[in-house]
Amino acid sequence: MKGTTRGRMSGRITGAPSRWLVAGAVTAVTCGLVLATGPAGAAQETAAQETGGQATAGQRAPAAPCVSDQLIANSAERIGGSSQVRITVINDGPEACVLRGFPTVALAGQGSPDRNRPLNVVRQGQATPVQLAVGGSASTRLTFTPVLGEADGYCASGAEPTVAPSIVLGVGGGGLQLAPDDGGQFALCGTTVRATAFRGSGP
Asked: Is the pLDDT assigned to residue 64 strictly greater than 80?
């Protein structure tokens, strides 16, 4: 699918700004998951199979949890201003799968997504299983603490704003590196992001 990012982290993103202004140390991604220790880390609630045991006659076996290799995504869609984005992931096949839970989120530059800065994810809503047929999609909404004012802006706390050209969304055991759909950058105050549970948004 043209213009999409697959759930295996790529080393480059196209159309992103040439400067990475994220302050602070970078944190490595281990085993394809965006991880961090302490309060800055937010463990991803991965997809889980909801029914156990063997399928009986006439019943179809439950779909397996979605894995990152079968998920793709477009850029992060701005909604409700610069501090909120919606990200839609699509099951690119070859089989149906079940997605459940919340993503992890990290700030990244233009290069390797392994060099990233994890954010503390505050979960919103209750996670329920989302059945994704091939071509089906699910969305999560991310809300950052906004930067106030214009131009360079400022934080209500008095801290310096943080700016990054991309984020790494942890989902299905891997990560998707995404830039904003308007060609800008992600700007936020603090180290926290609010994320909704994945919800079905397509066929």
From this structure: yes
**What's the rounded Cα separation, in Å, for the pair 187 and 176?**
19
- For residue 70, give both structure tokens: 């079968």
Q: Residue 129, Cα to own-chain centre: how many angstroms?
A: 17
Nearest CA among 131, 138, 145, 134 for reference residue 186? 145
Beta strands of the chain (E only): which ranges? 5-6, 64-65, 71-73, 77-78, 84-91, 97-99, 104-108, 116-118, 120-124, 130-132, 137-144, 162-164, 166-171, 174-178, 186-188, 192-196, 199-200
Angstrom CA distances, 132 to 95, 129, 191, stand at 9, 9, 31
pTM recorded for the entire structure: 0.73
What is the Cα 144 distance to its own chain's centre?
13
Lowest mean pLDDT among 49-53, 83-87, 148-152: 49-53
- How far apart CA 103 and CA 140 sit, in angstroms, is 8
Whether residue 144 contacts residue 2, with contact meaning beta carbons closer than 8 Å, is answered with no
Local confidence band at 62 (pLDDT 50, 70, 90 cut-offs): confident
Q: Which residue has the tokens 């997504």?
A: 113
Q: What is the pLDDT of residue 8?
A: 53
